[in-house]
Design goal:
InterPro entries: ATP_grasp_subdomain_1, PEP-util_enz_mobile_dom, PEP_util_AS, PEP_util_C, PEP_util_CS, Phosphohistidine_dom_sf, PPDK_AMP/ATP-bd, Pyruvate_phosphate_dikinase. The protein is an alpha/beta fold. Helices cover about 45% and strands about 15% of the residues. The chain has five domains: about 50-240, Up-down Bundle (Acyl-CoA Binding Protein), CATH 1.20.80; about 250-345, D-amino Acid Aminotransferase, Chain A, domain 1 (2-Layer Sandwich); about 395-515, Glucose Oxidase, domain 1, CATH 3.50.30; about 540-630 and about 665-875, TIM Barrel; about 630-660, no CATH class. The chain binds phosphoenolpyruvate and magnesium ion.
Amino acid sequence: MVYSFAPGRVPPEGIGEDVLGGKGANLAEMSRVGLPVPPGFTITTEVCRDYLAAGRRFPDGLKTQVENALAETAALLGKTFGAGPDPFLVSVRSGARVSMPGMMDTILNLGLNDDTVEALAGRTGDARFAYDCYRRFIQMYATVVIGVEDGVFEELLDAARDKAGVGRDNELDADALRALVDAYKAAIIGDMDEPFPQDVHAQLWGAIGAVFESWKNPRAVTFRALHAIPDDWGTAVTVQAMVFGNSGTNSATGVAFTRHPSTGEKRVFGEYLVNAQGEDVVAGIRTPDPLLPTGHHDGHAMSERMPEAFERLNALGERLEAHFGDMQDIEFTVDDGTLWLLQTRKGKRTADAAIRIAVELAGEGTISREDAILHVDPALLDMLLHPSVDPDAKRQVFARGLPASPGAAAGMVVFSSTAAEAAKADGKPVILVRPETSPDDIHGMVAAEGIVTTRGGMTSHAAVVARGMGKPCITAASMVRIDPARRTMRAGAITVREGDFLTLDGAAGEVLLGELPMVQRPLSGDFATLMEWADSIRRMRVRANADALNDAEVARGFGAEGIGLVRTENVFLEGDGLQVMRETIMAPDERSRRLVLDRLLPIHRDTFVALFEKMAGLPVSIRLLDPPLQEFLPNDDEELGRVAEEMGMAVDDLRRRADELHEINPMLGNRGARLAICYPEIAEMQTRAIIEAAIIAGERSGAPVVPEIVVPLVAYYAELRHLRERIDAIAADAKSRHDSDIRHLVGCIIELPRAAIRADLIAGAADFFSFGTNDLTQTTLGISRDDASHFLTRYLDEGIIERDPFINLDREGVGEIIRMAVDKGRAAHPGIVMAITGEHGGDPESIAFCEEIGLDYVSCSPYRVPVARLAAAQAAI
Ligand code: PEP
Ligand code: MG
């Protein structure tokens, strides 16, 4: 239940994050490497699960194990828990399997009471310091464990500052702090009718229970839902010896990144505060100083003020990078000149930085190219492909702050997270402006396009969280004065009201007035390098779903190796296509329909020629018309009247036809293959257009084009066989008319469970399959893809499902059906090409599944192509 860590005394290898939590495992690992980590012990996540399941009861035997570990750790440092002359103080921290920054509780300086505080004062010769620790501990303990409102203590602290006539907390002297401690204790009794515990063991057990408890607090629950972290993991608790960053001017606390988290530059980057404790940096209450001088050398930088500790930090940083093989985010404390590392973890970074760091680490030989590929979260690439403010746009700067997270976004100003969420629900883009953010603001940050805080720094909550979310963020815009009552803010002479538009330039740290145009940034050389590496490693090919020439162009720019799906419904809308299509639908019989369709053929053919030419010999899969015809007809009276007039026909006739075509459940109605069977002339026209276009494009370029014709929504083998015969016949006719002998392929999309079940037979009539997982998810789950969000959100909230199956492929259900179809299809038709063309083709986890079952390619929206290339490489490693 309990594992100790200290140099030379560490848990057995193999006891990892699932047991010790990320923090505990990390401390064990750091101790193993021999880094200067304050010693301590970790209570496992299993104990947390047992504790919560048993109605907040600690398991038998835990007490003895904890007390033993505690006594041993104290002895190691020559200190005593709960007694002088050198009292042992500890921190009690949460630690889930994955980092959940700021979501759960932490208690520092535990072990102080009315006696030990005096002993600490005596030992350090600094009563001010001892009482400062004590008042911080009482405040934390009371808010976290006893449940007193934090505001109570803030008010008393304000009053103490006023009384002493000082502006900052660290200017309060020992007597003032002693009085403050008494006031705090009285406030706790007044508020909760319960005294602050003097028994240090009672303090410890109270804190351990509260940390376990904090696994269930609302912000932790929201965070888990957001990051798909299972609710049943539980948190570990780490109890660790305190070291003091606030024990005088030769002490400090800070955060260091081994490389720059925004640019990736190889140079220690971070902030520190002299004579302070860790939470002062994170909370953004005091403005920290940089580790290295930035521009002007004013002597405040750590490298200038504490050169020895800085050098040691720098050297340890390099050692950590070499050991963990990645950029590290280190929390450190200097206690009277001695450097301690409190924590190190993989540093959060922007997409730009992630790519540069991965490529450079591989270049330096610290990691392999495969590791470099694994280091970059494909989802981060999305951020790179996001736009930035058009450099030609006229900028009117409202305020400047720190460039905490890059990217650009425009939206309407709101001043609270609740307002952000409400506006987002109304479909409005918003910029959230706050003095600073806390974990309670997560929902507002999720809803916002970008975030501005007037306080904080590069490592404050808003900065870290926004970088993780890939949203632009500007912190420390200190010239901005927010007036929450009026819902306005002012900087200089300019006032901005709630609802006004602002644009953020995260990279420049500028808040701009109005809604500015955006452009796509050019991609860096490191991006190209990483993509090259990915391409050389991945097995699956990556195509794009593209309906228009413009999509095809974007897709090629991002490295698509073909088009996996052209949804031809849009081609029917080109030029006066809609009008002609309506005439087709209104025509009384097949013969007249064919006459009208003859007019659509050249439009189709021209579109396909352009597409083939744009793709320059890369494969292009074109799908026959899929949606039900009613989608082409007007659906309200006003529209009906207008269209009837345009077409020169009676409204009643049009309405009658619309009524005839109307289906109660069109997604399960006459669409896909069914449409091609009932209206063969449409499929024939499309086939002829595709074949003719391929002939023309091939002749122009001198390289033959092999068009791929896709039949949608197939259920029966006989359907596909029937349609294939017709398609092949029309193709043969078109080829002979043009005296051409090009090849063409015919395949189908598997979008119905029946087609998957009969995949062996169907494979006999198909040159290729693609899995249309949008429809296949819809038809397998019987959940309408257009209506799902109303109730699936509830399912997610209730924990009934962990992922939205329309975003992340439902491996166990839909995935198993696909696996079966792949196996059956391959057995019957070795070498048949198989792919995925639903939205899941751009989702990294779904792509990993596609690799697992051996699909030949994934096809996704053009902007996701780089994501898919990287994810496919990761899946192949
Ligand atoms: C699918 O159903 O997954 C698919 C690719 O087709 P569409 O999204 O056009 O229905
Ligand atoms: Mg479909």
